[in-house]
């Protein structure tokens, strides 16, 4: 797979233990402030299982994430299951404060 993301393969991203163990990524966030990424399983965030890893580590396990590499900063993508289409929406962090 050629690298399609705006961050280099060795740049850190946020994920969780279950994603690194093979659980499907159901939520991807491309943060607007620093252009970093998070790849999560859709479960409520649990800091005890949160990880910071190189983006390539997640993409090696989940090559289908290349489908959302063009997700703009400030947007998130969600899906209900592996192989299902991604729904993309602009994040509105101000309304959540």
Question: Can you describe what's shown?
Answer:
With 97 residues, the chain is of the alpha+beta class. Helices cover 11% and strands 27% of the residues. It has 2 helices and 6 strands, in the order E-H-E-E-E-H-E-E. The chain has helices spanning 17-20, 55-61, and strands spanning 12-16, 27-30, 37-40, 50-54, 75-78, 87-90. The strands form 2 sheets. The chain has a 4-stranded antiparallel beta sheet with strand order 3-2-5-6, with no helix packed on it. A hairpin with a 6-residue loop joins strand 2 and strand 3. It is globular. The model has no long low-confidence stretch (mean pLDDT 94).
The backbone outline, from C-alpha atoms, is globular
Give the total of beta strands: 6
The residue fraction in helices comes out at 10-25%
Helix/strand class: alpha+beta
The ordered H/E elements are EHEEEHEE
How many helix segments? 2
Distance between the termini: 38 Å
Query: Can you tell me the number of structural domains?
Result: 1
Q: Give the overall average pLDDT.
A: 94
Main beta sheet: 4 strands, antiparallel
Strand content: 25-35%
**Cα-based radius of gyration, to the nearest Å:** 12 Å
Strands of the largest sheet, in order across it?
3-2-5-6
- Extract low-pLDDT stretches: none
């Amino acid at each position: 797979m050629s690298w399609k993301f705006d961050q280099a393969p060795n740049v850190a991203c946020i994920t969780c233990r279950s994603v690194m163990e093979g659980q499907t990524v159901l939520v991807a966030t491309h943060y607007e402030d620093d252009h970093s990424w998070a790849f999560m399983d859709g479960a409520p965030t649990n800091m005890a299982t949160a990880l910071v890893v190189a983006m390539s580590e997640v993409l090696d396990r989940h090559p289908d994430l290349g489908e959302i590499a063009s997700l703009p900063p400030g947007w998130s993508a969600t899906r209900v299951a592996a192989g299902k289409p991604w729904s993309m929406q602009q994040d509105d962090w101000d309304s959540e404060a």
